[in-house]
Design goal:
It contains four helices and eight strands; from the N terminus they run ααβββββαββαβ. It has 161 residues and is α+β, with helices and mostly antiparallel strands. The chain is globular, with a radius of gyration of 17 Å. The protein starts with 12 loop residues before the first helix and ends with a strand.
Length: 161
C-alpha cells in the first residue's frame, strides 16, 4: 500500500473522527471485529485466521462474544483464550481463582508490532498459564507478562523474527 494515499493530515479533526467511525463500521461489516475492542478483536481474528490456514494447526472457530473465559474452540472441542498485546502484559483472566477445573486448554498470545502487524503468536497450555500467571491487584484477576521464560515455555506458532 502506498502511504501517500493515507495522508490523514489533510483531514479536519471532524473528518478524521468521522473516518474512524466509518472504519469501525467497515471492520464490523467484514466480520474482522465484533465489538469496539479493536486491538483484542483484531488479534483474535488474525490468530483464528492463521490457525485455520496453517497445515498442522487446529482449525478454530470464534465463540460468541458473550462466551465466558474463551474466545475460540477447535473442531476437537479444545477451548482457547486469546489475548492480544502491543506491550508486555496481557489483559486479565477472570474466574481462575474460583475454579479448580480448567477454564480453557490453551492461551494464544498475539504480540503485535506498533503498526498492528503480527510479531509473534504464542500458545501456552493451561499448565504453563498457571505457572506464569501473575495477580493484577487493581483488576483483581490474573494476567500474563511476556518474559523470556514465558516465551521459552510457549509453543511459537508464528514469529516474524
Amino acid at each position: 500500500m502506498e502511504e501517500s494515499i493515507y495522508d490523514f493530515s489533510i483531514l479536519s479533526d471532524e473528518e478524521l473522527i468521522l473516518f474512524y467511525s466509518k472504519w469501525i463500521k467497515e471492520l464490523k461489516k467484514r466480520n474482522l471485529i465484533r465489538t469496539k475492542n479493536i486491538v483484542g478483536e483484531l488479534g483474535e481474528y488474525l490468530a483464528i485466521k492463521y490457525y485455520n490456514k496453517t497445515p498442522g494447526l487446529p482449525k478454530l472457530q470464534a465463540t460468541p462474544t458473550s462466551t465466558r473465559s474463551i474466545d475460540a474452540i477447535s473442531i476437537k472441542g479444545e477451548r482457547y483464550s486469546i489475548k492480544t498485546i502491543t506491550g508486555k502484559t496481557t489483559g486479565v483472566f477472570y474466574g481462575v481463582e474460583d475454579n479448580k477445573e480448567k477454564l480453557f486448554e490453551y492461551v494464544i498470545i498475539v504480540v503485535m508490532n506498533e503498526d498492528y502487524t503480527i510479531n509473534k503468536i504464542l500458545e501456552l497450555t493451561w499448565d504453563n498459564f498457571m505457572k506464569h500467571k501473575h495477580w493484577h491487584s487493581r483488576m483483581t484477576a490474573w494476567n500474563l507478562t511476556l518474559t523470556k521464560e514465558l516465551i521459552h515455555d510457549s509453543k511459537i506458532i508464528y514469529s516474524c523474527n
